[in-house]
Design a protein that fits this description.
This protein is 66% helix and 4% strand. The protein is built from nine helices and two strands, in the order αββαααααααα. Strand 1 and strand 2 form a beta hairpin. The N terminus is likely disordered.
Length: 179
C-alpha cells in the first residue's frame, strides 16, 4: 500500500525543495553550491543549469543524476508509485552486496516488494514473481535482474514520460532555457 509523502525520507523531500530553489536561483546568481546528501559541492553554473535538460535525453541520464533521481522520486511519490524506484534502487544495492549477506537482503526485498502481502508491492506478472521466489531460495547477485528489468521498463515507458510532462519538470526546464 502506498504511504504517500510520509513514506519518502525527509531528506529527499528537503532535497526536492532545495533543488527547486537551486535551479531557480542558479539563473540569477554567479556562485553556486548544492548540498548533495549532506555534502556541499561546488558546481559551475553552466553544468548545473543545463542538468535538467539532459534528463530529457534519456531515462538513464535522469537516473544517473543525483538531482534528477531525487526529483524523479519526489514525482513518483506524488503519483503514488514510489515503490517502483525504491525497488529498482534496492536491487542496485542488492547487486553490490557481499555473498554472505545475500540471503538476508533477498528475503527483505522479496517481503517488501514482491510477495503477495508486500507493503510496497510492485506490479509484476505471476510468472516473474514465481521466478524471483525461486531465485531467492538460492540467492545470487542476479536474483532480481528479471524483475528489476521489468520495473525499469515500466518506469521508462510510463513514469518517465509523465515526469517529463509534469509541471515540476516543465517549470524547471522552462527556467533553464530562459537563462
Amino acid at each position: 500500500m502506498c504511504r504517500g509523502l510520509e513514506s519518502l525520507p525527509i531528506t529527499c523531500l528537503e532535497r526536492a525543495k532545495e533543488l527547486k530553489a537551486l535551479f531557480g536561483s542558479l539563473l540569477q546568481k554567479s556562485d553556486h553550491s548544492i548540498a548533495c546528501t549532506g555534502q556541499t559541492k561546488k558546481c559551475d553554473k553552466l553544468r548545473c543549469i543545463n542538468e535538467p535538460l539532459k534528463w530529457k535525453e534519456s531515462f538513464e541520464k535522469l537516473l544517473s543524476s543525483q538531482n534528477g533521481l531525487c526529483l524523479f522520486r519526489a514525482f513518483l511519490v506524488s503519483e503514488f508509485s514510489e515503490e517502483n524506484i525504491a525497488f529498482y534502487l534496492a536491487c542496485e544495492d542488492y547487486r553490490a552486496t557481499k555473498p554472505s549477506k545475500l540471503a538476508t537482503k533477498a528475503k527483505k526485498i522479496y517481503d517488501e516488494f514482491i510477495g503477495s502481502d508486500a507493503p510496497r508491492e510492485v506490479n509484476l506478472d505471476h510468472v516473474t514473481k514465481a521466478i524471483i521466489k525461486e531465485n531467492t531460495e538460492h540467492p545470487s547477485q542476479s536474483s532480481f535482474d528479471l524483475a528489476q528489468s521489468k520495473i525499469y521498463t515500466l518506469m521508462e515507458k510510463d513514469c518517465y514520460p509523465r515526469f517529463l510532462k509534469s509541471s515540476m519538470y516543465l517549470e524547471l526546464s522552462r527556467k533553464t532555457r530562459a537563462s
